[in-house]
Amino acid sequence: MNVTSQVSAFKRGSILVLSAVFMVLVLGMAAFTVDFGYYLVQKTRLRAAVDAATLAAIDALTDDEAAMNQAITDLLTANGYDTTSSDIVVTSEYGNWDIATNIFTPGINFGTADSVRVHVVDNGIPAFFGPIFDEDGYSVSAEAVSTLSSTVPRDIVVVIDCSTSMVANMSNGQTRMDNTKAAATTMVNEMLPDDRVGLAVFSWYDNSRNRYQKTGRPETELNFDKTDTLNRIDDLEEGFYTSGTNIAGGLRAGLDVILNDPFPRPPPEPLEPEAEQIIVLMTDGQSNLAEPYPTPDDGPTGTLPPPPYAKKPTLSNNTSITKWANTVKARGIKLHVVTLGASAYSSTMVNAASPDEDDVTYYHHVSEGGSDAENLLEVFRTIGIGNHGPKLVK
Questions:
Q1: Does residue 394 belong to any structural domain of this protein?
Q2: Which of 120, 268, 303, 364 has the greatest number of CB atoms lying within 10 Å of its CB?
Q3: What's the domain count of the chain?
Q4: Are residues 101 and 186 located together in one domain of the fold?
Q5: What is the pLDDT of residues 219-247, one digit of tens each?
Q6: What is the three-class DSSP state of 116?
Q7: Same-domain pairing of 120 and 76
């Protein structure tokens, strides 16, 4: 064999060796690419499932810990994760989220929790080419925190129309009053522990006045404990005190609850938000009575002029509503107006509500028929949730 032949044979041998080495590298890169790509897909899929489970769990904070954990299990199962498998490890905690520091602290008392943390590990991710490198499978994990605490505390006064027209039935066969009571109860139950609630009604028979006695009446004071208000709502009936629809009187009574707060909130600490004040007025009809008490001239003080008061109202029904609505809003109080049925819808009621802001609608009209009961319930529920709906924060 000549030198040239020897060199050619050497080159061929070298190429075979290099090709073998190169093929190993190519296979290794392919294994890494396929397995790593699958790993990323599974991690993204797990994160989406954990996010959904955490949001479902925060909705169950109004129930109990068992309901919270069941909500997590249901959402993970719906997304293809068998929580009974030894490969799936689920850790859930309730607690509190600090807005200022963005730190989750596990809680001791479920009743004061405003946040949920869910951590899930899936140890069952297969490796397609991993066994080449002695790797049979992988683990992925995801964690999420959702909270209700990213909002300001609220003082909410619900004002309910107790006129005799509330006896009319809605599409579900229940009366307007029964559906309103159920909706108002749902709203209160959606509120957070840092929220306070009070109740006022209209119309009420004011015996201290000779002729024009029908106005509104405060029923419960603002309180963190919602029990008194819930019990009072449950007691309400159409025509509770007297007939008539004095909507302006309801506004005045709702404002009285706020102005006569026996235990006002202390000034907020630094970095803490100031509480919002909200009145939720519900009516099913047009006003047929004017407020006998004089308005405080739409001003921000919201206090009544001193007596004696004139026997006869000096304003028309609609003007009386507008004046008292303006007085409420001039104090920085948000005014939600909920009207039910065609006769309750009017430009006066639309204008009485606070103007829309930050994607929040303050006027809500529920048309009769079809799913009117469900719509009324959802309106009150949405107000109760406010801007503290479940949010993923981590």
A1: no
A2: 120
A3: 2
A4: no
A5: 999 999 999 999 999 999 998 888 889 99
A6: strand
A7: yes
